[in-house]
Amino acid sequence: MAAHVFPLQVQTMADATRILDALSTSVLIVDAEGALLYLNVAAETLFGVSRNQMCGRPLAELVVNADGLQGVIERAFERARPFSRRELSIRPLNGEGELIIDCTVAPFDDASVPSAALIEITDVTQHQRITRETALLTQIGGSRAMIRQLAHEIKNPLGGLRGAAQLLARQLADASMREYTSVIISEADRLVALVDSLLGPVHSPRKESVNIHELLQHVGHLLAADSQSRITIERDYDPSLPPLELDRNQIIQAMLNLGRNALQALAQLPDTHRGRIILRTRALTNVNIGVQRHRVVASIQFEDNGPGVPDHLRDTLFYPLVTGRADGTGLGLAVAQDLVARHHGLIEFESRPGQTIFTILLPFHAANADQAS
Amino acid sequence: MLQMPIKPLNVWLVDDDASIRWVLERALRQGGMAPTAFDHADSAIAALRRDRPDVLITDIRMPGMDGIEATRASPSCPSS
After folding, report:
1. What's the CATH superfamily of B10-73?
2. Stretch B62-68: mean pLDDT, rounded?
3. C-beta separation of B14 from B58 below 8 A
4. Residues of B in contact with A163 (CB under 8 A)
5. Residue A9 pLDDT exceeds 80
6. Which residues are CB-neighbours of A153 under 8 A, at least 6 positions away?
7. How far is B22 from chain A (nearest CA, A)?
8. A-chain residues near B17 (CB < 8 A)
9. What is the pLDDT of residues A326-352, one digit of tens each?
10. pLDDT tens digits along A247-300
């Protein structure tokens, strides 16, 4: 009986290339020195390069931070067997920003000493973003519920404390003794003010149709005044952005908190470096905010050239009372995130030394959001 | 002219927080009023069957019946 053969025969290099180019996974082949021998179309797209231009070039010319990827390759060569890393951060030289990838490096083992390795890369940036945002949204909801409960528990005894001090003040004939009760009263008031600022505005957003650039101009002027012109404020607006339905005051507050956060970061720069804030707007299509998919969202960015968010603050940056400054309240970003969340939006950030970008994502039509599958 | 003795204003207080009741009771008494304090809206509503205050002051957020429900349940409340 004749042996069954697959009708498709991979016989030539052209056949193999066609198949590799049809993959959505990025495939690269490197030699033992880390020089590129091959990239498929998906890899060209991921790294924003052409294979002709990159042939024989070192991996370090593809990505800014090649160390992580290089480490995986070295491990695979050392052990002469495939090696994988999940959620590795890379920054393509020709790319838009940081990517999160899963990668597997498999040395070719047809020779006794492997001289080349196949790298498979899956871009999980979007998936990772959704996971992270879902966690963030859950955390925002959870901390809001906790703060509301805690605020009630704190304000009640404070009311008693303050009232008792007022009654006591009336009984004191000696005016100098009333200094003591006034300290109790003013400190109780300070705590109430803190709790109130944690709670944020009590009313739900009063939405109206607003040109976001008008609000950004206003915020830009306030920031310029705050910084006493020690920094440069640049504007990079997409003028075609349609109006947004939002609560003017709440979004101004959120933007101002991000702007002031940037100013405080820039204050840490040495005198030789001039601080710069870029206010940027864009319209993004088909964007997920958590699990909600939106056809169009406004992206409002605050970019600064400060030292970057310290590593130890990254995961808890939007938690209330988390601050990197001795004199900070740790409320600015938490309140901003809360105000934007009330508009079904989200604030995210990416940061490295010299470039920190906080992005406010606001859906144009929160009601039209589709549940992502 | 007939002089009527001025009856102190009968004020009812409803608050689940003991320190708030303590302070308000004393403040009202110092202001010449006659306060009665309740720690639950239910007990104030029960007392309404026997007596009526001139003024009812209630906390809003309380375990069990909250302050808004309490004023609605009060027979003298215009909305009831």
Report:
1. Response regulator (3.40.50.2300)
2. 82
3. yes
4. 19-20, 23-24, 27
5. no
6. none
7. 8
8. 156-157, 159-160
9. 666 777 888 899 899 889 899 999 888
10. 998 999 999 999 999 998 898 888 888 899 999 999 998 888 877 888 889 999
Q: Of all residues in chain A, what percent carry a pLDDT higher than 70?
A: 94
Give the contacts of A372 (CB within 8 A, at least 6 positions apart): A130, A288, A291, A292, A293
Q: What is the DSSP letter of A353?
A: T
Residues of A within 8 A of B19 (CB-CB) are 156-157, 159-161, 163-164
Q: Do B23 and A156 touch (CB under 8 A)?
A: no
State how far the alpha carbon of B55 is from the alpha carbons of A31, A105, A216, A368, B60, in Å: 88, 79, 50, 49, 15
> A13-123, which class in CATH?
alpha beta
Residues 6+ apart with CB under 8 A from A324: A309, A310, A313
Nearest CA in chain A to B27: A167
Q: Does A170 touch chain B (CB under 8 A)?
A: yes
pLDDT computed for residue B76 by the predictor:
60
Count each helix (H run) and each strand (E run) in chain A, helices first.
9, 13
Q: Quick one: three-class SS letters along A241-290? A: CCCEEECHHHHHHHHHHHHHHHHHHHCCCCCCCCEEEEEEEEEEEEEEEC
Instruction: Say whether B19 and A156 touch across the interface (CB within 8 A).
Output: yes
> What tens digit of pLDDT does each residue of A165-197 get?
999 999 898 888 888 999 999 999 988 888 887
Q: Which residue of B has its CA nearest to A161?
A: B19
Task: For this complex, say whether ipTM is above 0.85.
Answer: no
Question: Contact, B31 vs B7, CB < 8 A?
Answer: no
Question: What pLDDT shows up at residue A323?
Answer: 75
Q: Chain B residue with minimal CA distance to A159?
A: B20
Q: How far apart are CA A153 and CA A158, in angstroms?
A: 9
Secondary structure class of B52 (helix, strand, coil)? coil
pLDDT of residue A33: 82
CA–CA separation, A11 vs B6, rounded Å? 111
CATH architecture label of A208-371:
2-Layer Sandwich (3.30)
Phi, psi angle pair for B46, to nearest 5°: -60, -40
